[in-house]
């Protein structure tokens, strides 16, 4: 029989382990891409190197957040570890660890595309680096959302927490972990396309910059939905029917949480593909800028509507 103390230390290790896994691969992808472009364009060595340093620091920020969560789990551990407390810690570890791993990988492709654009246009490196910095910072948001939810869960837990509540918290953590995947991938697709396109059409900066930020905000809405739904579930009490079994009490909450997490993957990736294609058209055809913005917003609105359907069903399940 596994001891609750084992799950406690496993959760702490899992958080930083997953984060380092994603960050390590991401750092390798970004570094490899930069070296490749420096070999291709020797005149851009200094510009590519500066952009790489900034990008690597942002890629590693997810692992730093996971490190903070690991330290919190270890320092604020209960004197007597129970299964309920250990499952709650596993919730925080999964939410932060998976989110950090995902953004570490997603952010690396933005650095790779930015250095490729800089190698193409070395004299335009400052604006390309600025775009890379801002888009990477926005990609980091899901791990911050997961960190916030994990802190709220961890510090709202008492030593007398029951198993049903801890399972509810575990489901919320899984929802945040799954919910960050789609938006992170979608934002990576968009930001990579935007940085690379800017290297080809530097005169389109005034159009690309605001359109990229607007698009990233839209792509991030699925994880925002998961965050709000997580807040709702945290403060929604479990039914107190003495005739209901543990499985009967917790099943609607678990299913609702997983539904929101899974449902956010498709819209996030879909919006990434739509907006990345629009970026290219906006840069190539300035005359259709307004039309492309309207069409992109409409297409993304339909994708977000599908997530609202899942939210409605999730609310029905828990109420």
Task: Give short descriptive properties of this protein.
Four Helix Bundle (Hemerythrin (Met), subunit A), 319 residues, mainly alpha, flat, 85% helix, single chain
CATH class annotation: Mainly Alpha
Overall mean pLDDT: 89
Radius of gyration: 21 Å
The share of residues in extended strands comes to under 5%
What is the third-level CATH name, the topology? Answer: Four Helix Bundle (Hemerythrin (Met), subunit A)
- Poorly predicted spans: none
Second CATH tier, the architecture: Up-down Bundle
Quickly count the helices: 12
Return the string of H and E elements: HHHHHHHHHHHH
How many separate structural domains?
1
Helix amount: over 70%
State the total count of DSSP E strands: 0
Give the CA-based shape: flat
Would you kindly provide a written description of the structure presented here, covering whatever features stand out?
This protein has 319 residues and is mainly α. The chain has a single domain, classed as Four Helix Bundle (Hemerythrin (Met), subunit A) (Up-down Bundle). It is built from twelve helices and no strands. Helix 2 runs antiparallel to helix 3 (83-120). It starts with a helix and ends with a helix.
Secondary structure elements and their pairing?
Elements: H1 4-40, H2 45-75, H3 83-120, H4 125-139, H5 141-155, H6 163-179, H7 181-200, H8 205-219, H9 221-234, H10 246-263, H11 265-284, H12 289-318
Provide a short characterization of the protein structure:
The chain has 12 helices and no strands.
């Amino acid at each position: 029989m596994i001891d609750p103390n084992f799950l406690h230390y496993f959760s702490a290790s899992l958080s930083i382990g997953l984060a380092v896994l994603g960050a390590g691969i991401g750092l390798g992808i970004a570094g490899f891409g930069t070296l490749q472009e420096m070999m291709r364009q020797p005149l851009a060595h200094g510009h590519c190197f500066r952009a790489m340093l900034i990008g690597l620091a942002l890629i590693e920020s997810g692992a730093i957040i996971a490190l903070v969560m690991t330290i919190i789990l270890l320092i604020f551990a209960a004197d007597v570890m129970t299964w309920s407390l250990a499952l709650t810690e596993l919730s925080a570890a999964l939410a932060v660890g998976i989110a950090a791993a995902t953004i570490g990988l997603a952010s690396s492709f933005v650095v790779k595309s930015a250095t490729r654009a800089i190698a193409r246009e070395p004299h335009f490196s400052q604006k390309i680096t600025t775009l890379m910095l801002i888009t990477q910072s926005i990609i980091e948001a899901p791990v911050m959302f997961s960190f916030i939810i994990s802190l709220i869960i961890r510090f709202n837990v008492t030593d007398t927490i029951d198993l049903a509540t801890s399972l509810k918290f575990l489901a919320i953590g899984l929802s945040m972990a799954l919910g960050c995947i789609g938006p992170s991938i979608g934002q990576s697709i968009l930001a990579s396309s935007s940085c690379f396109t800017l290297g080809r059409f530097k005169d389109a900066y005034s159009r690309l910059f605001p359109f990229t930020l607007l698009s990233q905000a839209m792509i991030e809405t699925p994880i925002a939905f998961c965050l709000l739904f997580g807040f709702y579930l945290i403060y929604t009490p479990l039914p107190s029917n003495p005739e209901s079994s543990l499985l009967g009490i917790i099943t609607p909450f678990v299913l609702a949480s997983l539904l929101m997490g899974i449902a956010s993957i498709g819209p996030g990736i879909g919006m990434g593909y739509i907006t990345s294609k629009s970026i290219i058209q906006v840069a190539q055809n300035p005359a259709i800028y307004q039309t492309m913005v309207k069409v992109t917003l409409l297409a993304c609105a339909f994708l977000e509507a599908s997530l609202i359907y899942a939210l409605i069903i999730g609310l029905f399940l828990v109420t």
